[in-house]
Design goal:
CATH topology of the largest domain: Palm domain of DNA polymerase
Shape: globular
Largest sheet: 7 strands, antiparallel
Distance between the termini: 67 Å
CATH class of the largest domain: Alpha Beta
Structural class: alpha+beta
Helix content: 40-55%
Radius of gyration: 29 Å
CATH architecture of the largest domain: Alpha-Beta Complex
Strand content: 15-25%
Number of helices: 21
Number of domains: 4
Strand order of the largest sheet: 8-10-11-9-12-13-14
Number of strands: 19
CATH superfamily of the largest domain: B family DNA polymerase, palm domain
């Protein structure tokens, strides 16, 4: 299927006697080809006529497959001729890999750019900063549902069994979705990529496939060359030393941002203030760069004003660092120019949208600029720079909390670059913002106003209801895509109830409704009323199943719940979704990286079964009740409600009670 921005729409189909046919007319966009060679030649002719080709997983499947087929004489049953390579618009680096089915290098166009959206949407900076984590899976259908509110055509059975009429519709729909992911919201994604390409000095093809560390590398390396500066080797930067703070999170090399312990319970009238571009601002104001942290000047190392709080570092006052200059300039451009223009009502909507895209693209790079400095894969990796940035950030947050307390404002939670203030006045927020700008050199802005917020005793886990009734959920299991649908639906029904709460008095009624909701869901579970699809955990495989753990060599005799015995091998060190995937493999189905595995928890030896191979007799109801409890207890404890009491199980008292 092929769709273009000029309105061109085409589906090319191969005439075959074995094609299933339901007797209905083909869609107008469909064109039948007598041979595979004719189909490929027409496809290549269309690709030659456009300078940008967008695919979804084109690098790993579509384009290598088209290339491989073009070189097979069987595509021309009469003359047995292949398509000459000079007539093929695709540039393949390692042809031998394609023949062995293991192509992984990007497939380029000889005359233009190829963007593989599968790789682009896997970029965490695109996922988190550009699209605010709206999608969590990297399948075409999942991304289209999240960003376009549209989806693929569903069908039962195998795609090869579809009537050719339905196959044409299916292919065209997939192509439309892929195209719309670049064209929606006035070509937002394409514009983002082109703006980031200009900033990072990378080609659109390259930046759409590589991580943000490569974007920042390209930008910094270009600036080094522009001023004839030497680019240091990573070994040279090791002389800067290691971190001077101790990491709190295991496997981290230095202490990160400050997270203020939440005050558990329900808090009404909570305002969230956000330190705008906190880390880029710190890098700019405090002159942080690999060559300025722990510089060789005695005048700097002996100056108390240049010391970085709670560390053994100092910064340079003799010269500006290249990272500080570049990140600071981008930060100022965004905050003082593009962000302002994106809200300017005196210019046209088209211009405002363009400035919004530019502002968003800069934000994507700025948000990653601090993290890459502490990532070993980054060429200019310098742990003291990342450590110093985080230390200054913690110091700013701590001093701001102290200022809030002086002003009589209660801080009920804080997370890295934001603070949750209970019941502040408008004057309080203005006062704190002015103080932060004057004394800390950072911008503090009002970000959100909650009608109320519910905290449990965990960090990065809360639920807030905005003044318009919108429910904002952070870190709670119930909203995550891998959670079984019946739990997720019950969770969102609970959010609907909480969204209608306006006062503390309303919570009495809301608690009773939530109890009934959860009790009803548990009863349906226990009486097998939910279809297996609603019980499924849905998890993406990141690598081939054989790369996970291993089966034990021993075979165990297992009694099944129907009384019959069976022999099975046990599995150690293997995640549950991989155990399910291996059962698929045992049944002849090929599973690869990127596939979504849907499985249910069972009483069998493996503890799981793929949905397609399971039945209700296999289901381990107790495991699902435990999953419900862990999901809902995140909120119920703050609401003073006990899950076990709801479903009629005794609640165990602790020693204090």
């Amino acid at each position: 299927g092929i769709v273009s921005n000029e309105g061109f729409r085409k589906v090319l189909l191969l005439e075959q006697d074995k094609n299933p046919n339901d007797g209905t007319p083909l869609i107008p966009e469909a064109e039948m080809c007598k041979t595979e060679k004719e189909l490929l030649e027409k496809t290549f002719k269309i690709i030659w006529s456009y300078s940008v080709l967008v695919t979804f997983n084109g690098d790993d499947f579509d384009l290598p497959y088209l290339y491989e087929r073009s070189q097979d004489p069987e595509i021309d049953p009469i003359n047995h001729t292949i398509i000459p390579k000079e007539e093929i618009p695709l540039l393949v680096k390692r042809e031998s890999f394609i023949k062995r089915g293991i192509q992984s290098d990007p497939v380029q166009l000889k005359h233009g750019a190829h963007i593989d959206l599968f790789r682009t949407f896997q970029n965490r900076s695109i996922q988190i900063y550009a699209f605010s984590h709206k999608y969590s899976e990297f399948r075409l259908n999942a991304i289209a549902e999240a960003l376009l509110n549209d989806s693929k055509i569903e069908f039962d059975g195998n795609i090869s069994d579809l009537p050719i009429q339905k196959l044409a519709q299916y292919c065209l729909k997939d192509t439309e979705l892929t195209f719309r992911l670049t064209s929606f919201n006035d070509n937002l994604l394409l514009k983002l990529l082109f703006v980031i390409a200009r900033i990072s000095r990378l080609s659109v093809e390259d930046l759409s496939r590589v991580g943000v560390n490569q974007w920042i590398r390209g930008m910094l390396f270009y600036e080094h060359r522009k001023i004839n500066a030497l680019i240091p080797h990573s070994e040279d930067l090791r002389f800067k030393g290691q971190a001077s703070t101790e990491a709190i999170i295991k496997e981290k090399k230095y202490r990160g941002g400050l997270v203020v312990e939440p005050t558990p319970g329900i808090h009404f009238n909570v305002s969230v203030v956000d330190f705008a571009s906190l880390y880029p601002s710190i890098i700019k104001v405090h002159n942080l760069s690999y060559e300025t942290v722990n510089c060789p000047h005695d005048t700097c190392s002996q100056d108390p004003e240049q010391k970085i709080p709670d560390t053994a570092y100092w910064t340079c006052k003799e010269k500006k660092g290249i990272t500080s200059l570049l990140i600071g300039s981008l930060r100022d451009l965004r905050v003082n120019y593009y962000k302002q223009l994106s809200k300017d009502k005196t210019i046209s909507p088209e211009e405002r949208q363009l400035y919004t895209v530019v502002s968003q693209a800069i934000k994507v790079i700025l948000n990653a600029s601090y993290g890459v400095m502490g990532a070993e894969i980054f060429p200019l990796y310098c742990l003291p720079v990342a450590d110093a940035t985080a230390a200054i950030g913690r110091n700013i947050i701590t001093k701001t909390i102290d200022k809030c307390k002086e002003s009589g404002i209660a801080v009920v939670y804080g997370d890295t670059d934001s603070l949750f203030l209970r019941n502040p006045s408008e004057g309080n927020v203005d006062e704190i913002s002015k103080w932060a700008k004057t004394n800390q050199g950072v911008d503090l802005e009002l970000d959100k106003e909650y009608r109320y917020v519910v905290f449990n005793n965990l960090k990065k886990n809360y639920l807030g209801v905005l003044k318009d009734g919108t429910v904002d959920v952070k870190g709670l299991t119930g909203k995550k895509s891998h959670t079984p649908p019946f739990i997720r639906k019950t969770f969102y029904s609970m959010l609907d109830i909480l969204g209608k709460v306006n006062t503390e008095k309303d919570f009495g009624t809301a608690r009773e409704k939530i109890k009934e909701l959860i009790k009803d869901s548990a009863k349906k579970l226990q009486s097998n009323e939910y279809p297996l699809e609603d019980l499924s955990f849905n998890v993406m495989i990141n690598k081939s199943p054989e790369k996970y753990g291993k089966r034990t060599s021993e075979n165990l005799r297992v009694s099944s719940i129907d009384g019959h015995g069976s022999t099975t091998s046990t599995m150690k060190g293997i995640p549950q979704h991989i155990k399910a995937a291996m059962q698929f493999s045992d049944n002849g189905k090929q599973i690869k990286a990127g596939d979504i595995i849907s499985y249910v928890k069972t009483k069998t030896a493996e503890g799981v079964k793929p949905v397609e191979l399971a039945n209700h007799k296999d289901v381990d109801t107790e495991k699902y009740l435990e999953a419900m409890e862990s999901t809902f207890d995140q909120m119920l404890t703050a609401l003073d409600v006990n899950f076990k009491s709801i479903i009629g199980k005794p609640r165990h008292s602790n020693l204090d009670e």
